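Usage example:
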Amino acid sequence: MMEGISYIAGTEVPLVLVDVMRGGPGLGNIAPSQGDYNQIVHGGGHGDYKPIVLAPASVQETIDFMDLAFDLAEKYRAIVVVLMDGNIGQMMEPAELPPMRPVVRSEPDWAVTGAKGRERRILSSIYIQPEEEEIVNIRLLKRWNQIEANEVRFKEYFVDDAELLVVGFGTAGRISLSAVRAAREEGIRVGLLRPITLSPYPYARIRALAGQIKGMLVVEMNSGQMLDDVIRAASGRVPVEFYGRLGGMVPFPDEVLEEIHRMAAQPASPNGNPRESWMKRLAIIEG
Amino acid sequence: MTTNAPTELVYQRPESFTETVTHYCPGCTHGVAHRLVAEVLDEMALREKTIGVASVGCSVFAYNYFSCDFVEAAHGRAPAMATGIKRVLPDRVVFTYQGDGDLASIGMAEIVHAAGRGENITVIFINNANYGMTGGQMAPTTLPGQKTTSSPYGRDVEQMGFPIRMAELLATLDGAGYIARRSLHDPKNIRQAKKAIRLAFEAQVRGSGFSMVELLSTCPTNWGMTPVEALRWVEERMIPAFPLGDYKTME
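Running the assembly step on the lines above writes:
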């Protein structure tokens, strides 16, 4: 699959892809997971390219982002991955369908449709000469810079006066919101940032928030893959902590609330290793 | 000697062909196969509505030679790509041009299912009994006993299995409308190959389902033969193993 995605990136053909993440590696299971984050956001096929990645947290957002995904893919001749987990992929909940838009049949000036009354067109990703391939890579990079400047999306909840910030995407973000609301009722000044675009990532916004808060908690259904992006954004300004469940396990809001309690009582040092300290707490779960 | 006598044009570059210096080896029959496809596209006036799909192998640069639109597929995936193009643009003509390393090995699933689904595409399949571009390794079509760079003592069927006959295999599928095998080793067979290519494109235009022409071809460089020896080897060794004929025709 990744070979095909790489070819599409190299050929600069718009693509919308849906990845519903499940427990793995290997045959794993079909329970919800967020274990493909690095594969989709930072990895993938060979070569130097980046996809746009949208992370819905509800059926409604899945519907809404699908529309957006096609628009972005066509606008930038880019790959757009709608990255969700098995929870959202298998869930039923009320949602509103937006009014249907007519499909605008356009023929972009690169499309291969038969060379009638024009020069032939070739769609290929082969550039035998490295000098030519470098030019292609730079073109892709320039396009990516535009995407990064214009398409970063995220949702924030209770951040204005927040002293603690939870960061989570998709289902982990939605569960975290329940925990944040519960903590707010207890008077804890905690907010949530839920990235909508995992790529381009809201680094600048998280960096800005790092200046106003005392600590961050990253919640994921993996071993801390987005954690590395949050640490990068926080740039050592605030302590970053992590809480994750693995293998298809979904955290309860109470588990996240407990983490918020712990951080509110005693924030960790910015020099700590969030994954290591989480592993120690995870041992308690096992015991 | 008169200089103003009326002339009759008997041979020229097909309109569907570009003026490109060939990158194929001397004695390789890819050039012949390319030309036959271009002639058929011209004769059927299909150039402006045709989209070709190049594969991976020596013919990865097939699009350099044709003046129709072209796309380049990943190794073995040309029938999948052709499926997508044809389904989006059903009134266009879509063909793939694939070698045996591409079609019969990594692309086995794509070709079998495209034929099984009866995709209305045409496949030009070059069978030269080895992987040409990568240096003459054993392919699924390599003959028993045939020496290649990866079977230096000859293909030992006990260890390496038997050649796969794609035309026969695909002809078993109901989705296939026209399947034929021809050879490019002499003028008579080249003319018969062209007829088959024309029938294959006609099948697509009629909407008869999947069509494929397998062309027995030479690879003198990797076979370690002169062009003439290579042509003889096709006739004497390949044809008995890959019998020529029509394997599927529409009523």
